[in-house]
Amino acid sequence: MLAYPLGIWWLDRWSIGVAFEAYLSWQRVLANAAVGLSMILLLAAIARRLLAPILLVSALHALLYVVSSIKYRLLDMVLVLQDAYFVSGFDASSFALLWHYVPSPWRTLGLAVLALLALASLYRLEPPCCRARAWPRLAAAGIATALLCALYFSAWPWTSRMYDKAHVRPSLFGFNRAALRAGLTTSLVYYHNQQRHLALKVDAAALRKALSSLPPEPQAQPAIRGTGGERPDIVIVLSESFMDPRAMRGMDGVPDLIPQIRAQLAAGKGGRLRVPAFGGGTVRTEFEVLTGMPVRAFPEVRYPYVEMRLDRIPGIVGVLEKAGYASLAIHGNSGGVWNRLGTYKAMGVDRFITKSEFRQRGATEDGKWMSDRSMTDILLRELGHAGKPTLAIAISMENHGPYDDAGRVADPKAMAGIALPAGLDAAGAGELRSYLYHLHNADREFGRLLAGLRARQRPFVLLFFGDHLPALGDVYDRLGFADGAEPGRQTVPWVMAASGDVAVPGGGVVTSSWQLPSMILRAAGVPGDAYFDFVSRIGPGLAADDSSPRGMLLKDGLYAAANARLQDRFDDYARN
To answer: Are 358 and 374 within 8 A, CB to CB?
Structure first.
């Protein structure tokens, strides 16, 4: 029993690659093991055995650290509380997604089955340690139940000094520092306590200052209309892990793999995009583009679709619905992953086509995931059948990692022919070649989608952007970036194309993802509501400089506005 806390601390340090002695103290060791000890106590009381519960909880706790170490290696981020959504909302697609990241998955599954059989045998062989109605057993069960209930409801002792902010010392820039200083399990308890007391707070003074210092409204765009005066279709494509590969050193010396997007950028039809995610976390960028609210306005929220379980989420869908639009979302994976199904319903999306319907329509995979070609086919078909102006949101899946699918792609010869810069080992070259193969497919499908929209003889606005950089840590370490900046500070491309060659607002500049919905409304000539008008006025100033005193004032006002917006109170502040 005494070895358990020390063993867990060793695993904790191993999972993030630091020495056992790093931040070592008996208080941290015990606090980090307290959740597991409570589980052991409860299981021992239920089973009337001691060794089997210790081994079971130790194995589960060790599994937690192994998963965290894999995530840390791929994304440079430890396991966070919201990752538990994969357990509570688990389905076949969630399992497939995680399965691809497990090293030697079949061997791992076999070892897990053997471990379960061994535990079951041990349980049968180990004699009961007490009578069924012995008072120590009842007392242990009562104490353990009380501790775990207190944990769930965020009550003492889980709110004591060992789990407070001063001890955990979290960082605004990520979850890793809290795990380093206090231990992963302790950090999870801390963030659980935060989430239990999550509340939307509007800094009314900051919002009023920002409102009073807003620049003039941008000049109105010429409205895009069809020959009969109809409004344009609006198509939003979030392309999984789409980046400009020439941001990496050495890639400017190999043939261009995104010629379609690069041509649009050269024509001033887009620019560089700052996104709130790196290597993963698509829903963070997706949330900003569909709502116009920066996720950093809600510092306790990591994955908004999971944590913001609201009946109504205001955004571009609601604004366009009032303007007479139908709405459609398309995603080649399960709608249950990251709670897209519930979130899209709260946003007001009319229909959501997911992986099961992809298969019914004869869609195919390219590599491990549904192909961008199939997504484009479905998107063009749905728009062709639409009876009124439509907002179509397409979330691609093909270029999702891990990038080890060389034997499963639709065109192995094309993948093998992709040129790479020097300096990569065999593993890194394989990952990068796989990523670039799917990246080129995404670029090709953008061109095909744009040509298909133009051929329909209906007005349209098409927004295409990347959600984050791919998780290619070893490649980044070996190649580096042309601008010398860290991977997490890189931008991704965005492009906005429209019928009639209409000028794109904000083209050629660095833009934040929360600015895109107000920009697409302006390009389409659809009046926004008070919040989107606010964003269109405050955005350029923040994009130019967010660190000056004026920039900080605008940023505080924007964050306050987002909190007011989510409470449906922004109009009240705007009127006063």
So the answer is: yes
